[in-house]
Amino acid sequence: MVTLNIFSQGKFSPILSNRILPPLPSLVRWHRAVSDHVKLDKLLPKTFGLEDGRAEIDAYVGDKILSLAIARIQIDNMTDTDINAGYLTKEHNSAVSNVLFAHSFSTVLPEFDHFETIFARREHDLGTMLEAAVFKVSESPEGEEAVLELATWLLARHRQEDEKAFSPIAAVNYKGELLELGGKILTDRLGGLDNDQKFKAVATLGGVEATGEGRSKKKAEQQAAAFVLEKFEKFK
Predict the structure, then answer these.
(1) How far apart are CA 62 and CA 150, in angstroms?
(2) Helix, strand, or coil (residue 198)
(3) Are the beta carbons of 202 and 185 closer than 8 angstroms?
(4) Considering Cα of 16, then 20, then 21, then 22, what sign does the dihedral take?
(5) pLDDT digits (tens), the chain, 236 positions
(6) What's the CA gap between 89 and 107, in Å, rounded?
(7) Would you call 41 exposed, middle or buried from its count of C-beta atoms within 10 A (0-12, 13-18, 19+)?
(8) DSSP assignment, residue 114?
(9) d(CA 195, CA 86)
(10) Residue 219: helix, strand or coil by DSSP?
């Protein structure tokens, strides 16, 4: 097994600032490693009818490997002196969330993209498959660079989606567009203190469903609406 030495310096310089959003980086190394080293039967979760639960164990380890890679990239690329641990934690949690995994699945694991439709309402299962793939890739000779590349991409995707849906500069009202098309959106508070609340929204349109999370009801609804409109266009 190859140990990820993600504390090495200089291999990637993906995101230099929270205020500058570059295009999404490449996934060439990651895709090549998945193609060479990942087999479908090693990714399927127990909910698919398997009994050994091996994918869940691999996903547990893969989650830790990916989390550490993302944390290293965040630290290596901090340029804003006002970014604190609270900000980094929120960004990290969004980048490794099942919500983001589910909405990025066909790009990150294109060879298995049909499972995005099969597990359309089971984001946890899609997350399990991706995290299990991370573990399998991490064991390969090119695993370190491939996982770092994926971590870079996930951070960039999170920031891109966050900017697209929630920046004051972006005037698109995704919730309004969704409702005009006959869609629905439901929002629940997940908990947290009054100064650190968290909300989850579920948006539906034409049989397509997507979820969003945020520190405000509006942010969660905007994210869910943006995701469901994107999926609706893909599957209609």
Answers:
(1) 12
(2) strand
(3) yes
(4) negative
(5) 444 443 343 333 333 333 344 577 889 999 999 999 999 888 887 766 656 678 899 999 999 999 999 999 888 877 665 567 777 888 888 888 888 888 888 889 998 877 766 666 577 888 899 999 999 999 999 999 999 999 999 998 888 776 654 444 345 688 888 898 899 999 988 776 665 678 889 999 888 888 888 778 888 888 888 888 877 776 55
(6) 25
(7) exposed
(8) T
(9) 12
(10) helix
Integer CA distances (angstroms), 188 to 54, 60, 100, 108, 209, in order: 33, 27, 19, 29, 16
Cβ–Cβ under 8 Å, residues 123 and 99? yes
Lookup: tokens for 37: 């080293």
Structure tokens at 92: 């990290």
Structure tokens at 231: 């999926």
